[in-house]
Amino acid sequence: MPYAINVLLPKPSEYGDNLIVTDSIEWxxxxxFGLTVAKADxxxxxxxxxxxxxxxxxxxxxxxxxxxxxxxxxxTIGGQV
Length: 81
Prior knowledge:
mainly beta; 3 strands; elongated
């Protein structure tokens, strides 16, 4: 069953030189009995001037658990997917 979960990351509050920011989210996927069947660690890394511009971004997911789960990672920054 597909799910889409949007995660909003706060803009860094520092100003000056460009920053390379890495954020991560850990997901525990549970079955109907509450048992963990898979884990996913989702990462996004990007370079920003902390004002209005994102210069590049990349994302990846590390997974582990019962075979049969497929993860699709889509990142949207400033309207660009």
